[in-house]
Amino acid sequence: MRLKTLPILSSITAAAALLVAGPAAQAADQPIIGLITKTETNPFFVKMKEGANEAAKSKGAKLLTGAGKADGDNAGQVTAMENMIAAGAKTILITPSDSKAIVPAIKKARDKGVLVIALDSPTDPTDGTDALFATDNYQAGVLIGQYAKVAMAGKPVKIVTLDLFPGHPVGAQRHNGFLKGFGLAAPDAKSNELGKAAEVVCMADSFGDQAKAQTAMENCLQKSPEVTLVYTINEPAAAGAYKALKSAGKEKGVTIVSVDGGCQGIKDVGAGVIAATSQQYPLKMAAMGVEAGIAYAKTGKKPSGYTDTGVTLIAAKPVAGVDSKDVKTGTELCWGKK
Prior knowledge:
Layout: H1 14-25, E1 32-37, H2 43-59, E2 62-67, H3 74-86, E3 91-94, H4 103-111, E4 115-119, E5 131-134, H5 137-151, E6 159-163, H6 169-182, E7 200-205, H7 210-223, E8 229-232, H8 235-247, E9 255-260, H9 263-270, E10 276-279, H10 282-299, E11 305-308, E12 312-315, H11 327-333
Parallel strand pairs: 1-2, 1-3, 3-4, 4-5, 5-11, 6-7, 6-8, 8-9, 9-10
Antiparallel strand pairs: 10-12
Helix pairs in contact: 2-10, 5-6, 7-8
């Protein structure tokens, strides 16, 4: 095992995790389920892990968790998967960091009889896993695009997009859905290529990270200081964009829209940092994944296809013709209470 690709495993070392999990792997009445997220630090995946832990504890399952070092760390996710299977996991829940590169490792797991379910992010191709439990990310983008179009009526449109990174399905779906909702030419939901319209004055990769997004926004402001609308892949990226705009004295003249609907993100909507966000439900994704893993252990039945876990537009100020919920509702629902 190469240490440089070793993921973080549940606040203990990978070796210790395997020692703890080993005896449990032999307990036939306790299903062992692995959860592998893109990172340990992104609030979305922290909440997903929390949901999986709660579901596993209430259902009597053993949960192993792991993550890559950063978004895009495919090697770390592969190592985590191998460790978990060696520890007896018969179900793996995964949010793929690299939708294509992870597929061969998933195939090896499935060939061994392991149920593999993608959460939040599909593989490429989508049938690389047994099932997908996720937000309709294209629709999430459409909703904030529709909102932005009405909110920006009569104003000049100069758009910055702070994306994930090239080729990732979630990043492409949200970006292209946003363009579609705004009424601009956009690829369809099946495309992993980012659309580019004349109104988009700068596109940059943020990797969903606040610090990287701030730097990206600063660079875009140097290139296109006339920006009036910012789309971000998630709310940490939105926070980074806002910080850059505020430092440049431009935060009051720019509308930011995003996707996630986390509790902090909803606070930012209430504070005027983000105009609107599409709320998704990682607790629900994780709980459904754990329940499917337990059912597989007991009955051998595998889930299949795509299950939409829901999305809701949250905005502090509603706009005509676009259905949205207020900040109070967003706070009540944030990340899984739906």
